[in-house]
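Much of our argument rests on the idea that a fold can be written as discrete symbols. In the encoding step, the backbone of a single protein was reduced to a row of integers, each denoting a local shape. This step matters because it turns folding into a mapping between discrete strings. For completeness, the protein is quoted in full, as a sequence line and a line of structure tokens:
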Amino acid sequence: MKSPFVYILANKKDGALYIGVTSDLIKRIWQHRSHLVDGHSEKYNITQLVYFEQHETMDSAIVREKQMKKWNRQWQVDLIEENNPQSNDLWSEIV
């Protein structure tokens, strides 16, 4: 899946969230799951892929990521629940 993506990870339903952008979704999520990414996601064990969206360009993905990071938490949760009501880990859908 080499294409620009914005993604949201969670550590559990209604738990801590991480929003990121990548050009290689499988590799990046694998890095999070393998605890190779230092920072917020490592500190709070945020490894479950609960939302992702593909973009035409990396610029548009970065703009979207920054927009989503500015949202209040409820908007982020609403986006996840609209697309993934059970907050299932979507890892198996991308590999």
